[in-house]
Recover the amino acids of this structure.
């Protein structure tokens, strides 16, 4: 599998799953634009890639801001000559029961997770359409399929990503652009590290493979979908959860 000569944008690439995806795509030969709201973490990951002999550039972006995502894609196209792979990975949680959820937390999670994905697809679709090729991979979650107590905002945003993925696949397929979603289960990252040992154990007993996922597990699937080997897959949501939800 190779991504030699490909130009990739990974949002939320500064840590966790996004970092693992950026490292994986770069290890396969892609030039990776590591885009994160945290400029320092984006720079650290880009430095890690270049230190390992790969190619990467760091960008600061808030995906929830339409202007900023348009600016990001413009800068990437100017610097690299186009964009072949977009991974919409940036995401946040603001957990609370519905009755206690501040409306601002509902809005914020929808704005970052769902509107952010829309903003980046919208910005990348034009250059991809003129190239007549492209790969868009959106990070959803199994929580978007089954719901979770205290995560109404997050679950709705991740279910929305599935519908957005299907629609974008329909609109862009004729131009040679595939659009898929990946739905991870429980992956060990900074997002999940604050969960108690009890919650982790409860989750583990529900996973057929009896282990929590690693960011690299998700990165391997994303790399496959971004590669020539994933050429004939579009409009799909693929779960990667060790056997939790199906
Ligand atoms: P993470 O460790 O919190 O990393 C997310 C990254 O996105 C951080 O670097 C964060 O920066 C950045 N970010 C946050 N808001 C942003 C914005 N508005 N614009 C640009 N970047 C932004 O999370 P993760 O666990 O790696 O999760 C990555 C993705 O996988 C998310 O979409 C998440 O919902 C999804 N997912 C995760 C799991 C899991 O078990 N970990 C399961 C299913 C799905 P800051 O740290 O500075 O905020």
């Amino acid at each position: 599998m190779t991504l030699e000569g490909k130009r990739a944008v990974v949002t939320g690439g500064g840590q966790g799953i996004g970092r693992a995806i950026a490292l994986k795509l770069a290890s396969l030969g892609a030039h990776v634009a590591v885009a994160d709201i945290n400029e320092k973490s984006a720079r650290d990951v880009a430095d890690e890639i270049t230190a390992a002999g790969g190619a990467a550039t760091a960008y600061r972006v808030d995906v929830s801001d339409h202007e900023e995502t348009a600016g990001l894609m413009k800068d990437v196209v100017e610097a690299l000559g186009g964009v072949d792979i977009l991974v919409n990975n940036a995401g946040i949680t603001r957990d609370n029961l519905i009755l206690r959820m501040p409306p601002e937390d509902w809005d914020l999670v929808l704005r970052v997770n769902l509107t952010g994905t829309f903003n980046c697809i919208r910005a990348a679709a034009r250059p991809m359409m003129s190239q007549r090729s492209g790969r868009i991979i959106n990070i959803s979650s199994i929580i978007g399929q089954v719901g979770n107590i205290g995560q109404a905002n997050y679950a709705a945003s991740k279910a929305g990503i599935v519908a957005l993925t299907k629609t974008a696949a329909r609109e862009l397929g004729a131009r040679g652009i595939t659009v898929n979603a990946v739905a991870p289960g429980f992956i060990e990252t900074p997002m999940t590290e604050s969960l108690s040992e009890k919650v982790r154990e409860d989750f583990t007993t529900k996973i057929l493979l009896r282990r929590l996922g690693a960011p690299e597990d998700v990165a391997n699937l994303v790399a496959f979908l971004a590669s020539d080997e994933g050429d004939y897959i579009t409009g799909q949501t693929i779960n990667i959860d060790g056997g939790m939800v199906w």
